[in-house]
Amino acid sequence: MHNCFSKGGLLSLTTARKSWRDEKESQLSTPAGSGISARMGIEAGFLVLQRGFSDDCDNAISEEIAKVSGNALVGEDSQEVVDAVITWWREDDGDLIDELVDCLTYLTEGGQVWLLTPKVGRDGHVEPSDIQDAAPTAGLSLTSTFQASKDWIATRLVARKIGKK
What we know:
- By secondary structure, the chain is of the alpha/beta class.
- The chain has helices at residues 7-28, 36-39, 59-69, 96-104, 128-137, and strands at 48-51, 82-88, 107-118, 140-147, 152-159.
- 34% of the residues lie in helices and 24% in strands.
- β2 (82-88), α4 (96-104) and β3 form a beta-alpha-beta unit.
């Protein structure tokens, strides 16, 4: 019988734990350029609107989305109907409900809104509870959240389904 507290057992357990932790961290911090657009469901041919982009945003995310979709990202002044809206949002950017409602006006049926917010500890961090409160008021459901890059969290929002009559 192998004792996990023996030198070999403890080392093996420590190595296994470190390997598991490293794997989880790499899943959580997928750097842009290595599949972020796939995690966001962006496909070739998608038309994507980008709102709120500024100097503090992660340009690599925008570049990858444009590359995968095969289209330049549409700007805020566009009147295009799009497959997805990427909105960079900070705590002091205004009313989140208004922003989410504005995002809906651009979306095709079945489209998605990706709300990118600074992660905890960064200037402009948005509390998850603020997003959870704003989404239903704007007619959206929050479906998933993940770390999009070193400094940004991505939250997926979709239009709520209306019950059949």
